[in-house]
Amino acid sequence: MTRWIARQRYLIDYALASAARRRTRNIGLLLVYALLVFVLASVMLFSLALRHEATAVLRHSPEVILQRMVAGRHDLIPPGYAERIGRIRGVQKQAGRLWGYYYDPVMKANFTFMVPPDGGIERRSIAVGPALARERGLDENTGISFRAYSGKLFAFTVGAVLPQDSELVSADLVLMHEDDFRAFFEYPAGHWTDIALSVANPQEVRNVAAKLAAALPDSRPILREEVLRTYASIFDWREGIVLTVLSGALLAFAILAWEKASGLSADEKREIGILKAIGWETSDVLKMKAWEGTLLSLSAFLAGYVAAWLHVFHFDAGLFAPVLKGWAVLYPRFDLTPAVDGLTLATLFFFTVFPYTAAVLVPVWRAAITDPDAVMRA
Amino acid sequence: MIELRAITKAFNQGQHNEFWALDGIDLTVEARRVTALTGPSGSGKTTLLTVLGCLARPTSGRVSLKGEDISGLPERFLTEIRRRSFGFVFQQFNLIRGLSALENVMLPAYPLGPEFGALRLRAEALLARLHLAHRREARVEWLSGGEQQRVAIARALINDPEVVIADEPTANLDTALSRQFLAILEELSAEGRTVLLTSHDPLVVESTAVHRVVSMRDGRLVAA
C-alpha cells in the first residue's frame, strides 16, 4: 500500500511538472473549462436556490385552494360553499380569502390587494410590500390614495411596511381591512375570492381534492404540490432558455477545450516514447496522464463552481438574474439561501471532469501502446 | 547472458514496403563484457540492439536472458525486465526537456515507488560520479552535448541495471568527449556490468575498452 501511494505521488509529481512545462496551453484550458463550469453552475445554483425559496415560502400555504369557475374563468365564491365543504371528511380547517389585483397608473404596475387571514389591519390603514414602498416612497404613516375600478377615490394610511425577508412573495402586496377591501372592489357580503383548506394528513390531500371536485363541480381545487410543481417547471423552463441561448457559446468552448486536450503535440508523443523506453509501462503513462487531466479538470471544476457560488450568492447572479428571475415593474430584492443538490453537483462534475479526462487519455493511450523502440528511430 | 537464436525482424510485414531488418541472427552476449555492434547504416545494428534490450520483439526466433526464454512474454513483463535489467543511452540522449538533470536521472525509478530521499541520494551520487553534481538543478536543455550524455548515462544507471545499452553513443560528441565516454565505459565494465553498444566510430570500435566487436551487413552477422 505504501509503495502504491509512493508510486502515485511520483506520478502526480511528474504530472504536475509536465503540466507546468506546458503552462500557457494548460492555463488557457483551465480558464476555458472554469468558465464553462462557472456558466453551467451559476444557472444551476440560481435555479435551485429559487426553487428552494419557492418551496420554503409555500411551506406554510394551505394544502388546497378552492376556486370557483364560470365559463372557464375564475369567479367569486358565493355564500353557502363553505358549509358544503365543511362536511367533507379530512378537511381540518377552511377560510375564505379575499384578494385581487389593482393596476396603479402612477407606477404602471399591478399590486396585489389582500385581506390577511388573521386580520390585524385597522380600517383605512394598509400594510405594503417593501418593493412597493420603495418605488412609491412610502413609509409608516404616509398617506396614499387609490382610485377604485368604480371611479371612487380611497385614501389610506400606511400602518406598516412588510419585512424585507418576505420580499420574494410580498414585493407588490397591499394588505387591508376586510371592510375596506369589500368597499374598494365592491365585493358583496359573504362572497370570497377563493377558499383555503387545511388537510391534516398529506396522504389525504388528493382524496379531498377529488371529493371537492365531485361535491362542487363548478370549482377547481388547486393543490400546494401542484403550485410547487408549476414553480419548478417555470424555473426549469427559464433555466432551459438560458442554457439554450448559451449552448452555442458553451459548445464552442467545449470543442475548443476538447480539441486542446485531445491533441498530442509531437513533443508530448516523443516524451511518452522516452518514458516507455526507460521502463515506464503503458499503464504508468496512462495513470500519469489521468492524474494530469484529473488535476486540471478538478481545479477548473472547483474554480468554476466557487466562482459561480460567489456570483449567485454574493453578487446576486448579476449575469443571469434578469432572465432567471423573470421580469416585473416591482422587482423584488431578496437574498437567496445557498442550496446545493448532490445530484446536480454530481451531474455537473461528471459532464466536466469525466469528458476532459477521457479526451486526454484516448490519444495518450494510442501513443503509449506504440513500441518503445520507436524512440530509438526518432 | 543474452542469447539470440535465429532472430528475424520485419517491418511493415505483408505490405508492399515490407523490409527485413534482421535475417537469422544467432548471437551470444557474454556477461560483464563490452560488446560493440558495428556496420554501415541500414545494416540492422540498432534493430538488433532493440531486440537485445527488450525494446522490440523479434518477428521470429528466441531471446533468452540468463537462460530464461523471454521472447513470448507479454509487454508488461518485458517492461519489468527492461526496467530492472537494462539501462539505455540513446543516440539523441532523449532527455525530457524542461526537467532538471536530477529529475531526468530519477525518472526510470518513478514507477517502482522507492523512498524519495534514498532515490534522490542515489541520483545525486551518480551525477557526482559523472562530474555533474554542480549541474544537477540545471534544466537539461541548458547543458552541453557531453553533459547531456552523462545525464543520460546516469539515468541509465539509476535502477542499477546489469546491462547498459548505448546506441551510437559518440555520434554527437567530439574526440575529447568520445574519449571521456570510453573511460566511463571502462568503469562500467570494471564494476561488472555488461555493455552493449552500436557504433561505426573507429575510435570506439578500436578502443581497448571494447572487448568484442560484432560486424553486421544487410541484417546478418558478418563475423562474431
Could you give a quick summary of the protein structure above?
The complex is a heterodimer of chains A (378) and B (224). Chain A is an alpha+beta fold. Chain A has twelve helices and eleven strands.
- Average pLDDT across residues of chain A? 83
Q: What Rg of chain B, in angstroms, do the CA atoms define?
A: 17 Å
Task: Please give the order of strands in the largest beta sheet of chain A.
Answer: 4-5-9-6-8-7
Strand order of the largest sheet of chain B: 6-7-8-3-9-10
| CATH homology superfamily of chain B | P-loop containing nucleotide triphosphate hydrolases
Number of strands of chain A: 11
Secondary-structure element sequence of chain B?
A: EEEHEEHEHHHEHEHEE
Q: What amount of the residues of chain A lies in strands?
A: 15-25%
Residue share in helix of chain A: 40-55%
* CATH fold type of chain B: Rossmann fold
Tally the structural domains of chain A: 2
Q: Helix tally of chain B?
A: 7
Mean pLDDT across all amino acids of chain B: 89
Overall outline of chain A: elongated
CATH architecture of chain B: 3-Layer(aba) Sandwich
> From N to C, what is the helix and strand string of chain A?
HHEEHEEEEHEEHEHEHEHHHHH
Q: How many domains comprise the coordinates of chain B?
A: 1
Q: Which helices and strands appear, and what pairs or packs with what?
A:
The complex is a heterodimer of chains A (378) and B (224).
Chain A: H1 2-21, H2 23-58, E1 64-70, E2 73-75, H3 81-86, E3 91-97, E4 99-104, E5 109-114, E6 125-128, H4 130-136, E7 143-147, E8 153-161, H5 167-170, E9 173-176, H6 178-185, E10 194-199, H7 205-215, E11 219-223, H8 224-262, H9 266-277, H10 282-313, H11 321-325, H12 342-368
Parallel strand pairs in A: 5-9, 6-8
Antiparallel strand pairs in A: 1-2, 1-10, 1-11, 3-10, 4-5, 6-9, 7-8
Helix pairs in contact in A: 1-10, 2-8, 2-10, 2-12, 8-12, 10-12
Chain B: E1 2-11, E2 19-29, E3 34-38, H1 45-52, E4 60-65, E5 68-69, H2 75-85, E6 86-89, H3 101-106, H4 116-129, H5 145-157, E7 163-167, H6 175-190, E8 194-198, H7 202-205, E9 212-217, E10 220-223
Parallel strand pairs in B: 3-8, 3-9, 6-7, 7-8
Antiparallel strand pairs in B: 1-2, 1-4, 4-5, 9-10
